[in-house]
Amino acid sequence: MRRFQTFQDLFKRYRRPGDLVFASLFCLFAIFLLVMLPYETQWVKRTKLFAQPAFWPAVSVGAMALFGVLHLLGALASVRIPGRGAEVLAWLKSVEYALWFMAYVAVVPIVGYLAGSILFACVLAWRLGYRSARWLLTAAGFAVVVVVVFKGLLQVKIPAGLVYELLPSGALRTFLMTYL
Predict the structure, then answer these.
(1) Stretch 60-74: mean pLDDT, rounded?
(2) Taking a C-beta distance cutoff of 8 angstroms, is the pair 13, 71 a contact?
(3) pLDDT 10s digits, 81-105
(4) Which is it for the CA torsion 69, 71, 72, 78, positive or negative?
(5) DSSP assignment string, 36-93
């Protein structure tokens, strides 16, 4: 264990390349929440302070805004470190997977849970560089296991895809709509 030499060493700030961008975005978001607070909560007359519906949200959002401003001031006062653009780009790369998930959520009601899961598991495996037949079959198998666990074992009710409406009515259609 390393001992601190001075009081300043205890509170020394180590900056990262994307700190200023993060501090700016965090501060703006906290101020936005603070401005929106009167529209989202209310203060009720003749109610004790701690029982007010708006009290704890106001405390937490106020603290978030205070610490966001302090973080931004600290980031502005710190020595600049090169690499901010690369750091922000790394953050933005993660947004791709949120977009993939939103596309998955949009496709499942159309093609069904099983087909959508297999499709997206294989597409994401391909996107990540696993392009051999072995890995694509593994991804498809994983998707099938997920569907069996969620729909079969856990009995999660997921609406059938619109593509099943094209099938002729009968036992096969009912089975596919219920289990796949």
Answers:
(1) 92
(2) no
(3) 777 778 888 888 889 999 999 999 9
(4) positive
(5) HHHHH--PPTT--GGG-TTHHHHHHHHHHHHHHHHHHHHHHHSPP-S-HHHHHHHHHH
User: Around Cβ 145, how many Cβ atoms within 10 Å?
Assistant: 11
* Torsion sign, CA atoms 159, 165, 167, 169: positive
pTM given for the model: 0.60
Q: What is the dihedral of CA 135, 137, 143, 144, to 10 degrees?
A: -150
Q: Is the pLDDT of residue 13 over 80?
A: no
Distance CA 82, CA 16 (A): 9
Counting runs of H as helices and runs of E as strands, what totals does the chain give? 7, 0
For residues 113-141, average pLDDT = 95
